[in-house]
Amino acid sequence: MQITRITDLSSAGLADYSRLTDVALRRVLEPAGGLYIAESPKVIARALNAGHRPRSLLIQEQWMADAERLLVDWPDVPVYVGEPGVLEQLTGYNLHRGALAAMHRPALEPVEALLTNARRIVILEDIVDHTNVGAIFRSVAGLGADAVLITPRCADPLYRRSVRVSMGTVLQVPWTRLPEWSVATPLLHAAGFHLAALALADNAVSLDMFAEAVPERLAIILGAEGDGLSQHALAAADTVVTIPMLHGVDSLNVASASAVALYALRVRS
């Protein structure tokens, strides 16, 4: 391995890891710079297994064996090693999972490529909370949907918190960005998808009823906390579906709702 022990935080190779807790900074630098940050050996391994290319690793000394195992096929990737206090000074938080990797972002697939063989997809409209995005990806992976499509203003699934909350499943589940609804709606319909918007509405049908006869190809549309789905999304939907609730509770957190809906509407072989 190409090991460098950190003595100077101004080293150019450490710039990818600087001030990781500064959300505004990372939203600009990571996508524009063509990278994302993977945290923990498990998540880094999933990224590598998905075919993503590492740019460098940042680790504590005791994680050297893990770094060697992870980079067995990447011997020329730089590995920066530092004491916990030094790494915290660099990143802005305690690196208790022991390892970070700066990864090159893979190119996004065209929407049509993800739709070709899919039967269940999830569409995230303008969900800006990275924790919710990561949790939804974990539900998608665990409950068997084929892909996730996100709208132009949705949070980045490869942001560090999303990757961590998803347990790395954002690196396994195929995803890409949708165009605006005026373009996306006919594209989805042309591919044979029935669009089901999860929302509260007077014309909504219950999830139980909708699950009795699920369309063969289904797109489940989920919206942001608070604002919910836009009028454009609701207008695009073929059906509005709601989860029946009790005790005066009108809705669930969007990540929880995604799990309930995905289980109820899963493909049954």
Automatic annotation (TrEMBL):
tRNA/rRNA methyltransferase SpoU type domain residues: 121-263
Record flagged with keyword Methyltransferase: yes
MF terms (GO), sorted A to Z: RNA binding; RNA methyltransferase activity
Gene3D superfamilies found in the cross-reference section: 3.30.1330.30, 3.40.1280.10
UniProt superkingdom: Bacteria
Pfam families per record: SpoU_methylase
Record-linked InterPro entries: Alpha/beta_knot_MTases, Ribosomal_eL30-like_sf, rRNA_Methyltransferase, SpoU_MeTrfase, tRNA_m1G_MTases_N
Membrane-spanning residues: none
Coiled coil (UniProt feature): none
One Gene Ontology biological process: RNA processing
UniProt entry keywords in alphabetical sequence: Methyltransferase, Transferase
PANTHER family: RRNA METHYLASE (PTHR43191:SF12), RRNA METHYLTRANSFERASE 3 (PTHR43191)
Protein name: RNA methyltransferase
UniProt source species: Cryobacterium serini
Organism taxonomic ancestry: Bacteria, Bacillati, Actinomycetota, Actinomycetes, Micrococcales
